[in-house]
Amino acid sequence: MNDADRPRPAVSPSARRWSKSTLAVGGLVVLAFIWSYSWVISKVGLDYADPFTFTAYRASLSGGILLFLLVALRRPFKPKALAWTMLLGLLQTTGFAGLLIWALESGGAGKTSVLVYTMPFWLLLMAWVVLGERLVGLQWLAVVLGLIGLILILSPWHLEGVKSTVLAIAAGVSWAAGTVVAKIIHKRYVVDLLSLTAWQMAFGAIPLVLVATLVSSRPTEWSGPFIIALGYNVIFAGCIAWIIWLFVLRVLPAGKTGLSSLAVPVLAVLMAWLQLHEQPPLGEAVGMGLIVLGLAVQAFREMVWQGPRARARARRSADSPVRSPDDNAAAFDDMPEPPAD
User: Fold this and answer.
1) Distance (Å, rounded) from C-alpha 52 to C-alpha 156?
2) pTM above 0.85, yes or no
3) DSSP secondary structure string, 302-314?
């Protein structure tokens, strides 16, 4: 019998879930570096353009490229869940992208990124209320460490840069709400990731273009640094990163996704320090250290504690025809959700 004729071993649902989870974690690592540097390169780009104009260019070009890819790759073009997709675009593109660039105009790249990344804490509250995803055990320790670290970085006892601070936090709230909407879409509909990303970007770009047309305060200087900054944001931070992000949301729980993404502001502060010479004071440095410690606690829980438990459940499932409730629930994770009525 040839190797090609031999039957291939069946892949268990547990193995598929493990593979998807590993791929999603790898996606988070890639996202961390893409989005971290986007803060620095965006700050450079704002030297040559109005923030609303910069965001409008970024969102409209990213949405246009993704819509073109839908046609070129013959992927589903018509958007599903039209109302939900439009809401996702308003929250994730109009609100998140527009507010963060506006905040970045007057705030430092590193500090603004950290303020926006209060998102995981807003996400935890929203995911608890809307999605029923509760934190347990060591996750709470990670949250507390991260919260203390963010408080030290924010320094609420120093009332400086209030406008930039409020705008950055509002961007984080908008992003968290968009994340919850994305999770709801994935639960209720079978959607194509590329189509969802393209249409939410296109819908979210429309208000940004209108605002830029009405309130833009200065002409754009099409210099080399501006073109590089815009290209990076369109191709990497705008197209590739959002596709990865929506895939990660489909595989991982919202709370875990938000906590893991706390690596982005830490890297952004370091990159801003290296390229823009934004040296954080002692309090911010301590805060970053606490956030890293919180991430380490979360990683320990996932890799050392939860990993062996998940593998033990998989072995019990393979050895016994009687499945535990956790195994039964997990088996349905790989099944597509039926469209909502």
Assistant:
1) 27
2) no
3) IIIIIHHHHHHHH
